[in-house]
Amino acid sequence: MNGNLIIKNASELVTCSGFRAKKGQAMSDLAIIPDGAVVVKEGIIKTVGTTRDVMSELEKTEPDVSDFDIIDARGRSVLPGFVDSHTHFVFSGFRAEEFSWRLRGDSYMDIMNRGGGIVNTVDATRKAAVDELVQLGIKRLDSMLSLGVTTVESKSGYGLDCDTEIKQLEVMTHLDRIHYMDVVPTFLGAHAVPEAYKGKEDAFIEFMISDVMPRVAEENLAEFCDIFCEKNVFSVAQSRRLLSEAKALGLKLKLHADEIVQTGGAELAAEIGAVSADHLLQASDEGIRQMAAAGVVATLLPATAFSLKEPYARGRYMIDSDCAVALATDFNPGSCFTESIPLIFALATLYMDISTEEAVTALTINAAAAIDRADTIGSIDVGKHGDLAVLEYPSYKFIPYHIGISTVDKVVKKGNLVFDKEKGGVRYC
């Protein structure tokens, strides 16, 4: 697997061209090339255009293509590989019983306050061996890859102590090294308040700042720091304190903001220069305005709202307010146990008043921007990584149309064919 690939005769090459997050009307511009082709050499995109132009240029620059894999994408649409910019996929234990409680009407916070929720997963993850977490992670990454995802963000937060938080981040680092998928690690030590710190949340924040976060930074285990800024979890003031210290240590910032109660999380994200603010179901008009002005990506997680039976975030209003919107799964064991990209497309287009074109943008170039990767992934542009998804249909419009079913036929990572539905799925070296 040398990273040399030619894709030609694509019914449409959906380039999503760009090197930064798209806002407003620009989110509808997919920069489609009919009868498109792309050449990837040593993992990097070298040429993009019509099949005629690309193949003509290739004859001049690469007269011998015997070292290239060739995919004839006739009758197929080709897109950038999807980016899932918000997940919690490294965990042990399941919470199926809690799902049944929610079905009978118990709220997320009710379950959390009685010892369920995040803390339940914490117990299982603390007990889990590293190898167990690695094997579970591989299985989940394989599933994501089959759905067209080529880069995934992953959060810790199921330790709430030093050793397990570090263990989770080390597992992510290992998975990034051994799996095709690029794994972007985020430190989320302040994900919930452990029982020993109930009523002493300020002390827990100081513990994270003084005992855990320096080790995360020193060992280069995370790129981002996140916090659950929410009523009865961590306040705006506590979130500002933790994130300010994280920024001083060189970590980039994210936060879970305004998910259940409007607390001012969106405004805080703008104030501190977060790369993204996520959830935002209850974000205020002013918070959205400030995020748009500050260039904070709004990462929306419709499958979580769906699972919790909550109103969806105001994606249409955010786009119309010139805010860059990304979409992600929020894959986790409790409030959203799904890695389904097809479900995200369905919910965004059917229930959030987001167009198919905007949804594609939100899961490619804008999702890349939400993890500060828009310069290297998220679009089919010369100089970027050759991360591509080949659909089994001639148009991207089949993605939401074939409701809840993956339309992905092949996945390319850095110029290597790593998933082929026709040949049995994930291709291991």
Q: Portion of residues in helices?
A: 25-40%
Summed up, the domain count is: 2
Give the C-level CATH assignment of the largest domain.
Answer: Alpha Beta
Tell me the major beta sheet: 9 strands, mixed
Given as residue ranges, the uncertain stretches (5+ residues, pLDDT < 50) are: none
**Beta-strand fraction estimate:** 15-25%
Q: With helices defined by DSSP (H or I, 4 residues minimum), what is the helix count?
A: 16
The rough form would be described as globular
Structural class, from helix and strand content? alpha/beta
Total number of strands = 17
Radius of gyration: 21 Å
**Any guess at the CATH architecture of the largest domain?**
Alpha-Beta Barrel
**What is the CATH H-level superfamily of the largest domain?**
Metal-dependent hydrolases
- Under CATH, the topology of the largest domain can be stated as TIM Barrel
Q: Calculate the terminal CA-CA distance, rounded to whole Å.
A: 8 Å
Estimate the mean pLDDT confidence. 96
